[in-house]
Protein 1
Amino acid sequence: MNTTSSPVSTTSLLPIQVATNIVNYYVPIIILVFGIVGSLCNFITFTAPQLRKSSCGFYFLIASIFELLSITFGLISRFATDYLGSTLNTTSTAYCKLRAYLVSAIPLVVTYLVLLSSIDRSMSSSVNAHYRSFSQIKMAYRATIVAILLGFISCLHILVFYDLRPRCATMPGVYAMFDSMFVVFWLGIIPHALMLIFGIGTIMNIRRKKRRITIVTDRRLSCVPVQQKRESKTDVQLIAVSN
């Protein structure tokens, strides 16, 4: 057996290990800083009166709040465990369950709020007046409450089946498989597939509208009220963001 190969391999791995440690330490900090700044910018943007009164803008406003909570809680709690010596993740069952629950439920709420914005733009661009009636601020209030409740209720199983084993983890066996499928489908495939479907629906609605609109002259366009032009421009911007 060649006994000299082991020290050489270990030595060659040292720079990789150092680089990995640096990346693991600084990348979460960078993500946290840019995530907080981005969420605050979104919040400021969607609190503008013109956007705040829009149902789609309201969805993005609430989503930015939950996104800020998700980034700050998830990354800070993870950083505290990895680098600040926190042992709550291995000693406190309550903390284990609560953190696992929140890092799943809060991003889920954000995802479904963005989905609602996509649905809202699809409804508002429809040629059917009945569908367009769903794109109202009062409907946005109700749908937002439903999305928040759905996100937190659908993750309640985490509070039951997560525990210290000895670190915070899922119950092995059937539930571990269910938890994996829950993340893949409920947090991933289903909402993003629906976003794609309603995004395509929005594009089709816009094209259908264009075919129904006759060519107008620049003179007639100049007669359109300024407020109506601004609202139309806002709708176009929100459609672009939600898709």
Protein 2
Amino acid sequence: MTGIDAYLQRLSEELHRRFITDALIIDEVRGHLTDAVEAARSRGVDDAEYCAIELFGAPEVVGAAFAADRTRALHRILLFGACVAGLAVAYVDSRPTWDDAGVTAGTMFLLATVLGLLGPQRPWLWGLMVGLGVPGYALVRNPAGSALTLFAALMFPFAGAYLGRGIRLIARRAPQVERS
């Protein structure tokens, strides 16, 4: 195994740890490293592979950069969706004719589960955004009442978000079946 192959293996593991499974990234990095090695050899550098890898950066740093770039837009969309979902659930729950806490809790659980599947890096944020609307509205409406006990309702979206993250982790670790 060459130094480049070992580096690409470490980078692949780092990307996997950050929920990025795009094989094209590894191919692109391999091409850049190969070009850098050839350029270094043409300049007469003794250990061209080592120099190319050092210039490219540690796999942890490169993996973090790819992950940040890849997930920035997705997380903004998911954050907006979580806020809208939380407000919608709070709105429906605040209606005078609505009296079904089980449906409210189940809806928060399911919404947060989907968000946890789509954005497994921040399940705490999805649970918080989906779940804060209901107790927040109750606290604003009746600050002296027992609205604080409604914060226990946060356990449903938090459980859902972490379940979604767990499903994503399990699915990621499942053996991949090759398609022919």
Protein 3
Amino acid sequence: MSTDVALDLPGYVAGTWDFDAAHTYVGFVVRHLVVTKVRGRFDNVEGHIVTAKNPLESTVEVSVDLQSVNTNNETRDNHLRSADFFESEANPRMTFRSTGVRQNGDDFILEGLLTIKDVTRPVELEYEYAGVTPDPWGGTRIGFSAKGEINRKDYNVNFEGLQNGLAVVADKVEIVLDVEAKLRPEEA
């Protein structure tokens, strides 16, 4: 794809962008007992995006504090921090580092390496560019949404709870991200 692809993304600006933690959501959805879905998020997320002149050469790095897991249930959150799930005292951070971007029809795929506990595996996230806008404080903001799916057991998150013969937690976990990032002042 040519470097003119930026013309297809309204307002697109090359630069380095830092996540705005107050306006960024990193969450997950997992089925519980086959009948419902539990949603959770991580309240402490850091990251940056480097948008290249050619958007398909852009990169992103994300670091998530696993202690900050929040499902609106303290008992469940403490269980998720335990050795049954994240083992967050020994493995305090989950990280993602992009390895490539490709266009798939009208959509974009972000390829990268996700590390949870002691395992790093490739993942693909389908993402949407939301745009660029000035903020009320003289800065510039960019937005993206992404989603993907992993198997928790691929990352040694092997809890096998059963209730009435049903798995308490499904293996498949949906990943959901909404990121707002601010252009670094020296690049504005």
Protein 4
Amino acid sequence: MGLESITLKHANTGNNFGGGCHIHSGGPYDHKKGGHIILFNLKLVVEFPSGSDIIIPSASVTHGNMPIQPGKTCVAFTQFCSGGLFRWVEYGF
């Protein structure tokens, strides 16, 4: 979290490959002018208004987001599940 949560193009390769990553957006910013989620593999740019939630397979879809307007605030809360936990269970702890 911070005054402006921005990520560059990336994939979270340590996350569970088949699982979803939950992202929540908050803060007073104009979602028409910035803060969009970019799903590079899918060639999609999605408006992401404050208070929105999205679940993406962050290990398999390259993603990032656009900056917001100067003087505005955007915070993000992200939840994920480590792929190592699933492998640990699968192989008998």
